[in-house]
Structures are given as C-alpha cells and as structure tokens.
Write a structure and sequence with these properties.
Shape: rod-shaped
Largest sheet: none
Radius of gyration: 25 Å
Number of strands: 0
Oligomer: single chain
Structural class: mainly alpha
Strand content: under 5%
Distance between the termini: 48 Å
Number of domains: 1
Length: 103
C-alpha cells in the first residue's frame, strides 16, 4: 500500500483511492484473491500521472527561475564592464558560437 495516499498533491486521485480502501475493507480473502488488483493498478496509474504533472511544473518553474537569475547575472556583468545587458548577451552568444564553448 502507498504511504500517505490522501494528500493535497493527490486530490485528483481521491475517488480511486477511496474505492481501493473500500475494496480492502471487504476482508483479507477478498484482497488476497486479487479482487482489488484492477483498482490498485488504477491508483498507481493516477498517482504516477499526478507525480509526472507535479515534476513538469517544478521543472518549468526552475527554468523560469534560472532565466531570471541569469538575466540578473548578465546585468551585473554588464554593469561591472560598462556594457549594456543586451550587448553583453549578444557578445556572450557570439563568443560561444565562434569559440565552440558555452559561457
């Protein structure tokens, strides 16, 4: 059985998880004979889908945060060298393309 199934992260799977709990409540023999296996697979599928969506959101948030941080770094570099941020970005891309290295 999954630990902590009924959490806010899994709210979309609540109905299926409740059905699994009810199936398990019918008794050990009912569960041992595999009568709950289809519901269990549905729960696993639902939880995996929720986990995938959560990971995708986290990845996208991390990418956005990284873009903001890199912009701040570029602005700081530009301020230190006296070049505007747009020129600095263009120079960095041109250098990376010409030199074959990513800066």
């Amino acid at each position: 059985m999954h630990s902590h199934l009924h959490t806010p992260y899994n709210i979309n799977c609540e109905e299926i998880m409740t059905a699994l709990d009810e199936c398990h409540a019918r008794g050990f023999i009912h569960k041992a004979l595999g009568n709950c296996n289809d519901i269990k697979r549905d729960v696993n599928r639902c939880l995996a889908g929720e986990r995938y969506e959560r990971a995708k959101r986290n990845r996208n948030d991390a990418r956005e945060k990284r873009k903001r941080i890199e912009k701040i770094w570029a602005d700081e570099r530009a301020a230190a060298t006296g070049v505007s941020a747009a020129d600095s970005t263009t120079t960095t891309v041109a250098t990376a393309t010409a030199g074959g290295e990513k800066q």
